[in-house]
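> forwarded from #structure-qc
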């Protein structure tokens, strides 16, 4: 018995090492490094930014990237009021990341809870949850978000309340399918035989086994929320000044594209890099989980 346990342990360790080797060999560190820079901007932007993002220098307006003014060197140039674009991009990272993470946490929590309940209990609960997800998916959510924001008013907290509607149906569908698959597993049957309550089974036995799938989907969803916020802010229905997000910076710089491209392009590049890195990391860990 001891030897068999040892063999199983060795096999488990070998499988774990094999998965780590595949991840290390996949260039995952590139995505992690990019995301680490974005998170660093969001957390420590006040100490990293070379200038105050609201500081104006009218005589240095529309300086090109890598040019200098009396105030100093401007890596990404300056905007129409002489504000440092690099500092504005760093300032925009904080609120952009906060909205993306907060809205994703809400959407993931709602979708995961409903998906687990629907998959485990089935019956009328399952039918109601699935009809809700189908109705939500069939709606033009960008237009619905515009309508809601028009009614509630554009603000950071209203965006955080509205944007989870983009992503919770995806979580609900995926978690429901995984719950149905694991419902007949031996560890669930053992928990039922021991008299565990439904709540205990869902959150102590099912939920830990869904963690990797939830994490991968959450990474993708943060990117989706960032793009949705950028789209809403671009048309003036999202974050409002004096708050700063990448979407708002893109919107503010579009009027000057024929004169200066950098106030618009650099925030867009950072938003694209963030979404690209999140999707790349999620995709790689999905492939590793499948043994690719």
């Amino acid at each position: 018995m001891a030897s068999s346990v040892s063999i199983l342990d060795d096999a488990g360790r070998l499988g774990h090492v094999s998965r780590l080797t595949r991840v290390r060999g996949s260039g995952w560190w590139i995505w992690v490094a990019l995301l680490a820079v974005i998170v660093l901007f969001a957390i420590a932007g006040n100490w990293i930014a070379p200038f105050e993002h609201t500081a104006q220098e009218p005589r240095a307006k529309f300086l090109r990237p890598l040019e200098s003014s009396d105030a100093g060197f401007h890596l990404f140039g300056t905007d129409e009021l002489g504000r440092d674009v690099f500092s504005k991009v760093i300032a925009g990272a904080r609120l952009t990341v906060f909205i993306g993470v907060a809205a994703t946490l809400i959407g993931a929590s709602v979708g995961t809870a409903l998906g687990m309940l629907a998959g485990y209990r089935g019956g009328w609960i399952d039918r109601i949850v699935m009809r809700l997800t189908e109705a939500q998916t069939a709606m033009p959510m960008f237009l619905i978000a515009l309508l809601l924001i028009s009614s509630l008013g554009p603000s950071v907290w209203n965006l955080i309340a509205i944007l989870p509607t983009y992503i919770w149906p995806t979580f609900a569908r995926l978690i429901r399918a995984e719950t149905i698959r694991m419902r007949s597993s031996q560890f669930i049957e053992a928990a039922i035989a021991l008299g565990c309550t439904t709540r205990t089974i869902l959150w102590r036995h099912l939920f830990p086994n869904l963690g990797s799938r939830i994490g991968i989907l959450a990474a993708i969803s943060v990117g989706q929320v960032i793009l949705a916020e950028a789209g809403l802010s671009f048309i003036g229905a999202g974050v409002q000044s004096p708050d700063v997000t990448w979407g708002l910076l893109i919107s503010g710089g579009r009027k000057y594209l024929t004169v200066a491209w950098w106030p618009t392009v650099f925030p867009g590049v950072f938003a694209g890099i963030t979404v690209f890195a999140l999707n790349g990391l999620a995709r790689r860990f999905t492939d590793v989980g499948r043994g690719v």
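QC bot note: The first strand starts at residue 67 and ends at 68. Residues 29-289 form a domain with the MetI-like fold fold (CATH 1.10.3720.10).
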